[in-house]
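Hi L.,

You mentioned the student needs an example of a multi-chain input paired with its predicted structure. This one should do, with 813 residues in total across all chains.
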Amino acid sequence: MGRLPPSFFIYWEFIITVIGTISKSEELPASYNTGLKFIALLLFVIALGATVFYVQSIFSISEVQMGLSGESSLILVFLHNAGITMPLLVLGLSVWLVITAFQIIRGNPEAVRWASVIVFWMAVGAIILGVFLIFQQSAGSDTVEADLGRGLLAGVPFILLAAVTGGASWWLSRNSVLVNRNQTLTARNARMAWNLLIPTIAILIIVAARPLEKTFIESLTDKRFGSADPVNFVGLSNYTQLLGFRFDTVSCRKADDGTCTRDPNGSPRWELIDRELLREGYRSVGYLQLGSDQALVLSGTDSDFLTGIGNTLYFTFFSVTLELSLGLFIAMVVNSNFAGRGFMRAVMLIPWAIPTVISARLWELMLRDNQSGIINKVLLDLHIIDQSQAWLSNSGLQLNALIMVDVWKTTPFMALLLLAGLQLIPSDLYEAASVDGANRWVQFRSITLPLLRPVIGIALIFRTLDALRVFDVFNVLLGRQKLSMATYNYEVLIQNQQGGYASAVSVIIFVLIAVFTFLYVRSVRIEAA
Amino acid sequence: MTPETNILNKLLGRAGFYLLIVAIVLFSLFPFYWALNSSFKGEQELFEPASYLPRNFTTINYQGVFSNGNFMQALFNSAWVSAAVVLLSLVVGAFAAYALGRLQFRGRTAMMYIVLAMTMFPQISILSGLFTTVREIGVYGSPLSLILTYPIFTLPFTVWVLTSFFKGLPDEIEQAALVDGATGFQTFYMIMLPLTAPALVTTGLLAFIAAWNEYLYALTFTLTNRAAQTVPVAIAQFNGMVARQEPIAEVMAAAMVVTLPLIVLVVVFQKRIVAGLTAGAVKG
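Structure written out for the whole complex:
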């Protein structure tokens, strides 16, 4: 072991201080001194043990050892295997434990209070970890046999830790004068607040912060699942591959008489982009016609992803716009007083409550491409269309069909949100306006819309965020025929097993949605008091 | 304008209004009715031109669904996974919400912002990181992976809604408890928590619906293990007895079985659900 983390020096200082203070008398009743010293020692041992255990477990990973011996970059290997959150957390908590231990020895009651928080949650965490390890390690798999001994070996140390810290916690709670002396109400509240927040913070770190960090780091690698090749850092190349695009102009394919050839639905056929570009991996994504026989062509190194972004944006724009306008209309109708309003509310909740997968399957049946599909039958009977449409297989209609499904599912929900906003508008405003002779439209323009604007803003951002990450309807109804950003991500990750590349897709989606989340959070004010 | 035309106008307006209401009800319920209708038709009838009532009423699809081992297993998985997620989110979430809603401490506003931002967290964007985590922990392909990961969306939401309920409770109760010598934690679980029972029911319901309907994680983490799949995955990949052709009528019957309990919940608790949804989205 070449280097020591800086916290080791703090441990050393601690030992000197403990030796120095061990004989000093304190303001505490003498009978408590032994117990507190034991707790300080416990915190110290835990801090030291956790750091050593963590450092050892990181350095025992074979990849990190390769980094140590200079075969690959140590920093990158460390990032990939340990990340930033966990080392910082372990180190930070260790340092904090040692400082707390110091303060306890010095007789600081505040430190004793925090020690009571620490030992309690440590005991809870150790029990959960211990029980989990016993189950996980003793379970068998295809290659290993089930073995309870192995599980106990892994889990029992944590159970022991839980017993010791639990004991300390119990002792502190029995001698509550230790914790409560000189305590202000503010201090009590703050300690209790953190006590109550710790489980939430722990869960969010495990299931959100750490995976997010992992995604960011892995997006810089060429990691593949189910492959024995070592993971290499590839810099930003996943991103350049995903987002690489260029514009060129192409002419149309000429028939013998010099006119442009056209495909069955009337749009011209365009020439392929330059051969050199094709070899570099560029594929065309979309055309914008300029003049009669020229077009601007957008091509990208990952045309599937660019198309996916396009599909998602199209879907988002039209579904959110439709949902907002229809939802506002429905909200205003339902807002008036009439018998059966409760019933209406229940009815409007039903589309929202039906699982998206089920509503997708349901619409799959309704959108069948012949007369067995009810949508076709109704539209034919009403003479809106003159022949059955292949809603889900005609590529020009697919996205519109998905928008239809989403509008059905989400408009009532949108209406309910807006309805809540409408009901906050005092009715005397409308009465005053009627007295002044303003008609319904003027009332809508000058009272309803301005007062509803904050709610509309929030509902809009809310829905946009939801629509941008659309997965269920695309996956169930279109599979791989047309991809959204999210289904593309899923395909790359699960079907192609390209962990690194999929992570880069995830990061791009995250950044896009983070912008909207920022807007949302800013529009919801949290009173500082 | 004579009084007669005035009344006529009013009547017409009233009729138009109810016509609109009927249209909205139709819009909301028709697809649901269609699934119900189709679930009582034979497989063959679904390939004939659509009819508004089953021509040959049959319950064979329901018999098929209830004797389908995979589907019943999925129903069972969904039920206990959702229940466990709700329990976890409520217990942990109520703790955090009490801290954020009733207690003053440094860092409170920052925590509130984090929780609010987390309610919008795009699940898809940590899919690959979570995929690695779930495999490392060793719960890949087991329902445990879902119980572990679902709090990403249920927990921040639960905390946020419960916080706004806790904030609404009057201060006097807490002060009285304090005067009577209750400790901080006693005040929380003996006095404040029972007062939020209605809010707990609401958020519990919303979390249950969210967990019951979740598809992305369920698909990703249980794709390889049929025995661990939840209802949405089972319905998306429904297989009947005949391998080549998808039994759509049976899928519709399965959809009805899954949806009916949700609809009952929604109808019974509609007021509370709307209150919870709007507390989560509209109020600050």
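You could point out the following to them. Chain A has 21 helices and three strands. The beta strands of chain A are 245-251, 283-290, 294-300.

Best wishes,
N.
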